[in-house]
Amino acid sequence: MKWQNNQWDLRRVLDEIKDDPKNYHETDVEVDPNAELSGVYRYIGAGGTVQRPTQEGPAMMFNNVKGFPDTRVLTGLMASRRRVGKMFHHDYQTLGQYLNEAVSNPVAPETVAEADAPAHDVVYKATDEGFDIRKLVAAPTNTPQDAGPYITVGVVFGSSMDKSKSDVTIHRMVLEDKDKLGIYIMPGGRHIGAFAEEYEKANKPMPITINIGLDPAITIGATFEPPTTPFGYNELGVAGAIRNQAVQLVDGVTVDEKAIARSEYTLEGYIMPNERIQEDINTHTGKAMPEFPGYDGDANPALQVIKVTAVTHRKNAIMQSVIGPSEEHVSMAGIPTEASILQLVNRAIPGKVTNVYNPPAGGGKLMTIMQIHKDNEADEGIQRQAALLAFSAFKELKTVILVDEDVDIFDMNDVIWTMNTRFQADQDLMVLSGMRNHPLDPSERPQYDPKSIRFRGMSSKLVIDGTVPFDMKDQFERAQFMKVADWEKYLK
To answer: What is the predicted pLDDT for the residue at 457?
Structure first.
């Protein structure tokens, strides 16, 4: 088979983890993609901001999907930071630094011949009799209230009209009709959105491909945003750097655009100019799908429209999906955000921020924990400047917690401990009002706080300084236990 070589793709990644029951599990029990599949995985391994009970668990491959006899559905692949580290062959605690280096040293993608592109093993065109994406693409719903089946982890590849710039981004896309998707492109900051505006002004359809079932290096790398990846930066170079191997592209079958050559599924089509669709036109629930803060997103009254011209897939294809508020979103959004913050603070105050973590409590976007190093009294206060830099690096950040080097930033009990023993609310709290943030946070609406929130998507931002004043360090030394190198022998 064409995919059996040394190229990185989803199948190679799965081959590396499939024998580890903590990281991978398959089931042949029939599951309904309409809410049941996500409902099952909620208990097994979703994590994140999903309603409890949930937990960290293995990625799941569902081999028996109702209505799709020839399709397997994978979910939860990135729903564990440790698993992401395993798949990247890197320490999970320093993935932010690792991706920061990858952004700075990208390996550009390369185009291969059609014969070397397993993504095109099977081709269905919209001109074929009976073509219907709802029967070809096993896109699950997260909940019974969803506006429809969603492509939740499709990497959209698009370019400027003159083809001088290309970009990849991930958006929520709902299957609306036999050849029609609704796509939510969040206003501002997304390069695909800027390209689409360019096409719309010219009243021309914009060719794109939607690539599903990918090496997680591509999926996670694609979520970088400005200013870390400026306009014209193609984030496929990040995946190339992580794997030390160029991501392979291939020409589209029905559109003048590139597709990822080793994608499990590819949808080709056009973002239509000056055409919009109601997101829940088929359900009228008023809901879209669960988003990363843990709440259902409101159905958008006017999504942009993608006219699908073809569906291609590999033989024995794998449909990949994510649960919106799950730990997968934390990995996809949080780790690149950590890298973005580290990049900016390292330029401005080198050596003062030793590590950064965006925990599940903020869905990967809304909260960051920064570990601070102070050398002398001249460094006192530098921690708060680091927090302001974090807000500059990522405008959707809402809360920053600052801790010392002896605190494990990956242990929320340890982090909250600092608030109880190294923090006084009347002097260690900073509140920044009237700033821009993420519109999916339901508290960010004028009726919640009319004095600070003029328009939806504004927020008051918070800094919790849990670092010890430099001149008092000796009064905050943790109890020092004996170090026992061979402690594990007592468990045998």
So the answer is: 87
Widest pairwise Cα distance in the chain: 77
92 φ, ψ to 5°? -60, -25
Give the mean model confidence (pLDDT) for residues 269-274.
97
Quote the CA–CA distance of 479 and 275 in Å, as a whole number. 64
Residues annotated as catalytic (active site), given as ranges: 291
**Which parts of 34-91 fold into alpha helices (H)?**
36-44, 81-88
Q: Cα dist. 224→102, 109, 198, 267, 309 in Å? A: 11, 16, 22, 22, 28
What does 232-278 look like in DSSP terms, one character per residue?
T--THHHHHHHHTSPPEEEE-SSSSSEEETT-SEEEEEEEEEEEEE-
Which 8-state DSSP code applies to residue 295? S
Task: List pLDDT tens digits, range 47-104.
Answer: 999 999 999 999 999 999 999 999 999 999 999 999 999 999 999 999 999 999 999 9
DSSP string covering 412-446: HHHHHHHHHHS--HHHHEEEEEEEE--TT-TT-ST
Helix (H, G, I), strand (E, B), or coil: what is residue 406?
coil
- Check residues 258 and 445 and name the one with the higher pLDDT: 258
What angle separates helix 335-348 from helix 95-104, to the nearest 10 degrees?
70
